[in-house]
């Protein structure tokens, strides 16, 4: 891995800075603000996350979210194997894979289409994962996940995933677009299946909103909830993980 001095380090997808509310914000090529970790926040680390976010942001234009029908697989061919679409059933209040790329399916050693999304997450993370999925489809807030995926023999791999809102489907079910990519390679991946994800943290991805205001990215550790300026620790058993 190449090292760059902090004075010259600049993520390749950032091209200029703008000022919003007195804060200097790095701007991507497509005009979307993405925080720089030099400022104490974050950037999307994996090229797959960067590519899907830029593609999604270009599709939506001035809208809150693009339509599912606008997604052209050939436009994201390089990351298609790691890309997925989740469907949130309003009738059954469940989240399941509607589509999943071949690399993602191979990593988990199964066909993910039709599988409940929560089935891949540890029980203690179900509430937080469900809550952040709701942030995406109810509030149209893109989310960044950092998590560890583990095999049955406890081999581990660090992953980054982003989940992005799509326009509500005609059938009333919500759908969200995502990509999940390993931060490093593993020689055993594909031969030994991943079975459980362990959430490390979630963040809002900062995007422009109507009126030119900017959503400030907030790092949220599992088990914490944000209400305005307050952070509330969730406790107790039997929490409702429905969305």
Report on this model:
This protein has 243 residues and is α+β, with helices and mostly antiparallel strands. The chain is built from three helices and eleven strands; from the N terminus they run ββαββααβββββββ. A seven-stranded antiparallel β-sheet has the order 4-3-7-6-5-8-9, sandwiched between helices. A hairpin with a 4-residue loop joins β3 and β4 (94-100). The longest helix has 14 residues, at 47-60. It starts with 13 loop residues before the first strand and ends in a 10-residue tail after the last strand. Mean pLDDT is 77; it is low at 1-42, 210-221 and 224-243.
Itemize the secondary structure elements and their pairings.
Blueprint: E1 14-20, E2 23-28, H1 47-60, E3 83-89, E4 94-100, H2 102-108, H3 126-139, E5 143-151, E6 156-165, E7 174-182, E8 194-204, E9 219-220, E10 224-227, E11 230-233
Antiparallel strand pairs: 1-2, 3-4, 3-7, 5-6, 5-8, 6-7, 8-9, 10-11
Q: What would the keywords be for this entry?
A:
243 residues, 7-stranded antiparallel sheet, 31% strand, disordered N terminus
- Reading the helices and strands in chain order gives EEHEEHHEEEEEEE
Give the strand order, joined by hyphens, for the main sheet.
Answer: 4-3-7-6-5-8-9
Distance between the termini: 40 Å
Q: Report the C-alpha radius of gyration, rounded.
A: 18 Å
Return the average pLDDT rounded to an integer: 77
SS element count, helices = 3
Q: In terms of per-residue confidence, which ranges show pLDDT below 50 for 5 or more consecutive residues?
A: 1-42, 210-221, 224-243
| Share of helical residues | 10-25%
The total of beta strands comes to 11
Main sheet record: 7 strands, antiparallel
- The general outline is globular
Strand fraction: 25-35%
Helical/strand content category: alpha+beta
């Amino acid at each position: 891995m190449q090292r760059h001095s902090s004075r010259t380090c600049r993520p390749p997808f950032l091209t200029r800075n703008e000022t919003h509310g007195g804060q200097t914000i790095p701007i991507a090529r497509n005009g979307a603000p993405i925080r720089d970790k030099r400022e104490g926040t974050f950037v999307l680390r994996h090229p797959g996350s960067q590519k899907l976010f830029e593609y999604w942001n270009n599709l939506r234009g001035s809208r809150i979210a693009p339509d599912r029908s606008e997604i052209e697989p050939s436009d994201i061919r390089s990351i298609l194997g790691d890309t997925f679409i989740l469907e949130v059933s309003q009738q059954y209040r469940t989240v399941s894979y509607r589509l999943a790329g071949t690399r993602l399916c191979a990593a988990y050693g199964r066909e993910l289409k039709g599988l409940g999304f929560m089935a891949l997450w540890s029980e203690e993370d179900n509430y937080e994962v469900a809550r952040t999925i709701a942030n995406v489809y109810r509030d149209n807030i893109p989310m960044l996940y950092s998590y560890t995926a583990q095999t049955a023999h406890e081999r581990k791999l660090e992953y980054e995933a982003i989940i992005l809102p799509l326009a509500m489907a005609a059938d009333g079910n919500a759908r969200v677009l995502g990509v999940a990519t390993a931060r490093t390679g593993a020689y055993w991946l594909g031969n030994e299946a991943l079975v459980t994800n362990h959430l490390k943290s979630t963040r809002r991805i900062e995007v422009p909103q109507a009126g030119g205001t900017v959503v400030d990215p907030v790092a949220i550790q599992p088990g914490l909830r944000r209400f305005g300026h307050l952070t509330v620790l969730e406790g107790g058993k039997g929490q409702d993980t429905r969305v």
